[in-house]
Design goal:
12 strands; 25 helices; 4-stranded mixed beta sheet; 8% strand; alpha+beta; Collagenase (Catalytic Domain)
């Protein structure tokens, strides 16, 4: 059912996990702890050391934690579904038949190895035949229906300042390595990655039939173009400013200012009619000015090489074992520190899930997600909403007028749990087993591109749309719809355990709920009102006070050295750190509310308060490579697992009380230096 919560004077409803007289279990596996370490000295090691010792990093992973283990378990469930579909017979045109046929193609390594690079050669050969920029642009337009935008990104989504209406958004893109820093920074680690990337480009072109000299020339042209794009791109940290990324323009003005971008022709070729983007949002005007200049001066050779590289990269995962292995050598080993690739079943499962994940999700929830879990989550969410309302009221630094607006936004949260109420009609998607795996993946991309245009262009926002599949092990807050979403995939241990008591569940999934709610009030989410429109509903004084407290969080995390010579990025991770901080506060108080008339017992030597913090910390247990630490620190808005524990808990007063942390202990921070927001 759809849930729209309007909370007023609502009594707190206690979540009862267990049935009958049976005492619920603690939910804490003592084997996951390292009790030789004092909690006040290194809480991450205390709470997670046993798990990390018992789960050494698998060769195929750059990071493996309890979070990833749950994802792995879910992958196996999805794979079981695919194997069952593969082994049964279904009528042509049914979704089951499409899933079955696509999965069979994905695991048919004999056929893919026999085909080699042939599925991509017609596109490459066509580009090689083209001699002019105009001829190459015609090819770019031919590829557009498959969702290709060669140099930039684009999507149709809610207008940040008119949140009920969809609008075209275009933004920077076009760089294979994703981050501008990989092209511009000159520390030894980055230079090493950049040199490896150059070698990778050359190696891949040689695999596609080009000689050494041609491959080197293509590499140089690609690096030239991608470096120009990187120089004019914003960093991940800069991209966190939603106001700066909102620049509404008319098509007429954009075409006049950036004629060489050819936006109208490309959008029309994708299937988007001009009438639907007479106005649209430009994320980064500086980038599009640079792109306009680049396309004006780009030679046919540069254009061709860049487009060919784009096609090779998009195809690499769907071709022969040789191509897959070469691509893994750079992106898996060099970039992430993985020692080996995932097995075929896992790669195939993830690939099919990427293009037909919703269809698999419909089967998944019918098979694995009990209605009771949804009901318990609904109650938990209500309790967390009440607790967050109480935390808002408790803040002396926030004015009454801002509190009123905050309550209105909180009451307007749109809650999604488990799975969507409606599923995408995939009747028009064609999977042809006579064609190559790669060709069928392209057809899937074409289907989703057309579907997005058909469902969104010129139409109001569908608040019932989900942005994750039901089996996803994650959750999200979406500011333009003011929604919090908890897919079925995350509603299982170590996040949610129907056999465990409230202390565990509030510490694990409760903090996740509080985390997503707090996103509505973090440095980005607070800029959106109850209706999802980006507008300021704070007093100037409250904004200043919030920013002072947020800066304290930035400064604290900036000082954390995550690996020799590399510190955390407190500004990049600010939103997530604030959400962790708020989520812990809100969930803890919700637990206290839910159990005030029926206190929980000590179990396995741990009080309910201690089990709450152990449950939270256990979610982030994991091992990780140095390469992945470096990569995530540069790119991920989330702090590393260790610091979501050891960086966050020292700012939670209740943690000090639960574990008797005192001055002189390694993790002690004086109260006046602690982050205080919620």
């Amino acid at each position: 059912m759809k849930m729209k919560n309007v909370l007023s004077a609502m009594a707190v409803a206690s979540l009862t996990i267990a049935c009958g007289p049976t005492q619920p279990k603690s939910g804490i596996d003592l084997a996951n702890l390292n009790q030789e370490v004092k909690p006040s000295e290194d809480f991450y090691e205390f709470a997670c050391g046993g798990w990390m010792k018992n789960h050494p990093l698998p060769a195929a992973y750059s990071r493996y934690g309890s979070f990833d283990k749950l994802g792995e378990d879910n992958n196996k469930r999805i794979n079981d579904i695919l194997n069952e579909l593969k082994n049964n017979q279904y009528e042509d045109g049914t979704t089951e038949r499409k899933l079955s046929d696509l999965y069979k193609l994905s695991i048919d390594s004999v056929r893919r190895n026999a085909d080699g690079i042939k599925p991509v050669l017609p596109i490459i050969e066509k580009m090689e035949t083209a001699k002019s920029v105009d001829e190459l642009f015609a090819i770019e337009l031919e590829l557009a229906p498959y969702g290709n935008t060669e140099f930039f990104g684009a999507y149709i989504g809610a207008d940040d300042k008119n949140s009920t209406q969809n609008i075209l958004n275009i933004m920077q893109g076009g760089i294979t390595l994703g981050l501008k820093e990989y092209y511009l920074d000159n520390d030894s680690a980055t230079i090493s990655i950049r040199e490896a990337y150059k070698n990778h480009i050359v190696r891949m072109f040689k695999m596609f039939g080009f000689d050494e000299a041609a491959s080197v020339r293509k590499m140089e042209n690609i690096l030239k173009i991608e470096t120009i794009l990187a120089e004019n791109s914003k960093s991940r940290t800069e991209l966190r400013d939603p106001e700066a990324n909102y620049n509404k323009v008319t098509l007429e003005d954009f075409t006049k200012n950036y004629p060489n971008v050819n936006l109208e022709q490309i959008a029309n070729a994708q299937g988007l009619k001009s009438e639907y983007f007479q106005e649209f949002i430009v994320g980064q005007p500086k980038f599009f000015k640079a792109l306009n200049d680049l396309r004006k001066t780009m030679t046919a050779d540069e254009y061709r090489d860049y487009m060919e590289w784009g096609q090779i990269m998009s195809a690499a995962g769907y071709l022969s074992d040789e191509v897959v292995a070469a691509n893994f050598e750079f992106f898996g080993k060099t970039m992430s520190g993985r020692k080996e690739d995932y097995p075929l079943w896992k790669r195939a499962t993830m690939q099919v899930e990427r293009v037909m994940g919703e269809a698999l999700g419909q089967i998944y929830v019918a098979k694995y997600f009990p209605a009771s879990s949804k009901e318990r989550m609904e109650q938990l969410v209500k309790n967390l909403q009440i607790a967050l309302g109480e935390r808002i009221d408790a803040q002396e630094w926030m004015s009454d007028s801002t509190k009123v607006n905050a309550h209105e936004k909180l009451d307007a949260f749109y809650v999604k749990i488990g799975y969507p109420e409606k599923w995408t009609d995939m009747t028009s998607l064609v999977i042809n087993p006579e064609n190559s795996y790669y060709d069928n993946i392209r057809e899937c991309n074409k289907f989703w591109n057309a579907h997005a245009i058909e469902e969104k262009a010129g139409k109001p926002v569908d608040r019932d749309e989900w942005h994750m599949t039901p089996q996803t092990v994650n959750a999200y807050y979406n500011p333009t719809t003011n929604e919090i979403c908890f897919p079925a995939g995350i509603l299982q241990p170590p996040f949610f355990d129907p056999e465990a008591d409230d202390a565990f569940n509030y510490g694990a999934i409760g903090v996740v709920i509080g985390h997503e709610m707090t996103h509505g009030f973090d440095d980005q989410g607070r800029r959106y009102d109850k209706n999802g429109n980006m507008q300021d509903w704070w007093t100037a004084s409250d904004t200043e006070k919030f920013n002072e407290r947020a800066q304290k969080c930035v400064d604290y995390f900036n000082k954390i050295e995550v690996i020799d010579g590399l510190n955390a990025n407190g500004q990049l991770t600010l939103g997530e750190n604030l959400a962790d901080h708020g989520g812990l506060q809100v969930a803890y108080y919700a637990l206290k509310n839910a159990t005030k008339d029926n206190p929980l017992p000590v179990i396995d030597g741990f009080t309910p308060e201690q089990r709450f913090f152990l449950a939270y910390s256990g979610v982030w247990a994991g091992n990780i490579t140095d390469e992945e630490i470096r990569n995530r620190t540069k790119s991920d808005p989330h702090s590393l697992g260790r610091w979501r524990v050891n960086g966050t808990l020292p700012h939670i007063n209740m943690w000090y009380e639960a574990f008797d942390v005192k001055e002189g202990d390694s993790m002690f921070i004086p109260e006046e230096e602690r982050i205080t927001i919620w």
